[in-house]
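Re: folding output
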Amino acid sequence: MMQKLFYITKGLENIVEKEIRESLDNPDILEKNQKYIIAETQSQLQKITSLKTVDDAHLLLDKQDFQTKPSSDQIIDNYPSEKLQNAISELSKFRKLGDCFSITVSRYKNKQADIEEIESEIERDISHKINKKFMQNSKNSKIDFRVHLEQRRILYSVRIDSRPLYFREYREKGRKGSLKPSIAAGLVEMADVKPGQKIVDNFAGAGTILCEAQLQGLEVYGGDIDRDAVKCSRENLSNISEEASNQIKRLDGRDSPHPDNCFDAAVSNIPWGKQVDLNEVELYSQTFEEYSRILKASGTLIILCDNPELARKHIEKNFPAYSLKSQKLGFLGQNPTVLIARPG
């Protein structure tokens, strides 16, 4: 059985490892870093594709380490074409593969490799071995082979599902600043709440956090001050639960209609960066005062923001009995911070 390669968001590696250990059969974590986890597991591929905090899951064809940066010729010459048939056989037992394949070449701290040359040469090798046609656009291909280049390492793999794991069927609408669903799922996991408990997001945007919370069995509430955002949230959430979508209201997150001491957790992606133009001090001050009112005394607060110093100041003021931890994330060239506040 081939090893599995899980691509992840920087900063969520511990959350992803926890989900892998809790969800898969007898997982053996062989390697974990900020970009991916390599593991062995006896789980069927169907179960692997149900993971929520993973960006993408692959069958690992081969992993090769070098003393110096590998050249384009080395990357091409070392392609593990002898393992292609086994990979295709394993995938075909799980899903229909179609007649075409695509290739994704990514690189990290290795700019000397010629991506076009690598793709062209490997494409001919794969086409010959598996008797399928090459397609330039990976969105229209059901088989995507990946070559991930690092400073002194190459990872050769093939995607398990036809689309990345962060893709969600419910997500018909998106908005500026919307989170990738796997990141939203990770934030909900950080809250460590149990199915049936209540979670709120008063800055819902496209509703991704609430959708992921609903998928985890939580009762979801919240909304947004923007009418279009409320409509977007409701439409996405209605694809999971019509009843849950009715709990999304137009509201001001700084002065909401929710009752006191109501929720077990609040998880929000506070507007940051270029999303909005607001007085940040006022936003943070009033938001955390409001969350302190509507959260239970035992409730957890999870906040994603780009001004952790200011957020920390106002969280500590409004939640004096809480302990506060932080975790930086890395995605799309940005490095926002997650603040995790719990009682004690």
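--- second protein (sequence, then structure) ---
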Amino acid sequence: MPSRNLTDELTTVAGLASAVVEHALSYGIDIKPICKALEIDPQIFQSLTARISLDRLCRLLETCALLSDDEAFALASITRYEAGSTGPFGYGLMAAPTGLDFVQFLDDHIQYVTHTSYSKLTLDERGAHLAWTFAPIIVKRDQYVDMSVGLVMQRAQAFATSDGIEVQLERPAPRNHKPFRQLLSRRVSFGARVNCVHFPPSFLQAQNPTGDRRLFELMDLQCRSLRPPTPEKSADFLEQVRRYLLLHVSDDDYPLAEIAPYFGLSERTFQRRLAGHGTNLNELRDQIRKEVSFNLLTESELPISEICYRLGYSAPSAFTRSVTRWFGTTPTEVRERKSA
């Protein structure tokens, strides 16, 4: 069993990476030593239902991209992907009777496939706009996003009107845009604030020639039954609140008026429940920020100014004061100690 840390609380469907072993070998890369270092069993990628740490998978993909010197490493791996390797999610997308069914299924089950900190589907006269991002603690995620969006776009190609789909990615622009235009969309852009896919009205109205309503509804039920337990069902109240704060750690404010209703409580009852555990919202937020800051300072190459932003600080000076209070030293010194 791998040693668990804060980032391992966020998971993804292991089958998303089912083609990575073979794809890495095409570059002469044996991923077994990398997987061993990351405490990943490569066999898990062949499971239709198993889950894996999102952070560990992201690190594996980023390492392969560096070793292959290919910014499109993970995206190109989808050409070796066997349809349905994500189990009911993949089969559900393939069986979607219409483009609208496809998009709504994607939105309904995005939390089954992967833990996101934010996702929102907007439907209007211009079409459907699905936006999502991840908790700031998941740092090395560009390759993972490339691959997962690429797999969705593969399934969307079953619809004759998929050419009008627009993709916007958070990742920096790659040196070579060609594989992204070929495997994602001719209308792909980079440097977005959050990841977005826009489906035009023509796609939503399109019929899937291989659609199957009964299979689609069955896969919908299976995705719901296999969805990771929510904190409300799997953890005590304190752990529920910690998970909420972890996913929203980049928010600059935590108004009780928004948090308490999320847990089905009045503000006063929410505060009383925390007090019963010997803590309060500010203390919990401070502890989460401390854990995430140490992880980002010691396990990533993100600039300190970017870490400050990801933790919801308005200025680097405020972040420096917090780090000094937590660790007795500056952010730079925390990072240097780890690398020494």
